[in-house]
Amino acid sequence: MTRKDPGSSIWFSLAIDGESLGYFNGCEGLSTQVEVEQRQEGGNNGFVWQLPTRVTYSNIRLTRPLTPDTAKVAKWISSVQTGIQRPTAQISALRADGSLVARWGLIDVLPVSWQGPSLDPGSASVANEVLEIAHHGFTD
After folding, report:
1. Among candidates 117, 134, 123, which has minimal Cα distance to 64?
2. What does the pLDDT profile of the chain (140 residues) look like in tens digits?
3. Which stretches of the chain are DSSP H helices?
4. Helical residues (DSSP H) of 7-138, grouped into ranges
5. How many degrees, rounded to 5, is the angle at CA 129 between CA 128 and CA 130?
6. 77 secondary structure, DSSP code
7. Do you know which NCBIfam families this protein is assigned to (predicted)?
8. Strands across the sheet with 11-16, in order?
9. Are 39 and 53 in contact (CB under 8 A)?
10. Distance between CA atoms of residues 70 and 65, nearest Å
11. How many Å is the Cα radius of gyration of the chain?
12. Which domains are delineated in the chain?
């Protein structure tokens, strides 16, 4: 049995309604928070009730060096101008050999920002792009 190192070169793929938007080398914001309302019960001094109220989801930021897949991202963002359709998405974390580490399904995805690379001929840095997406929750 071969041991798979969980810390080795993870990269991410993004698909919107089954159509691949390519691979990214950074992904942050896969998080959720449950807001809690505290209620005190008369005569019960042992604890305070913690009642869940609202669930919020963070925006997700995906980063990568500039690739030909940038055109697919631009097309998806431009589609918002003709009417908002909130598709499902899938983010997959993959090892360097392409094997799946984890997968997250997202409901009602919306592109909220895209940042293109800074093209400076005096700089030797990699031209990166950042895509930020909002969603309404996780699914299978």
Report:
1. 117
2. 454 555 558 999 999 999 999 999 999 999 999 999 999 998 888 999 999 999 999 999 999 998 889 999 998 988 888 877 889 999 999 998 889 999 999 999 999 999 988 777 777 778 889 999 999 999 97
3. 70-78
4. 70-78
5. 130
6. H
7. conserved hypothetical phage tail region protein (TIGR02241)
8. 19-24, 11-16, 89-94, 100-106, 138-139
9. no
10. 10
11. 20
12. 10-30+57-136 (2.30.110.20)
Residues in the chain: 140
- pTM recorded for the entire structure: 0.83
Question: 37: which 2 tokens?
Answer: 């309302």
Residue found by looking up tokens 């993004």 in the block:
14
Residue found under tokens 């049995």: 1
Phi, psi of 15 (to 5 degrees): -125, 135
**How is residue 134 written in tokens?**
């909002």
- The C-alpha angle 133, 128, 113, rounded to 5 degrees, equals 25
Tokens matching residue 85:
């359709």
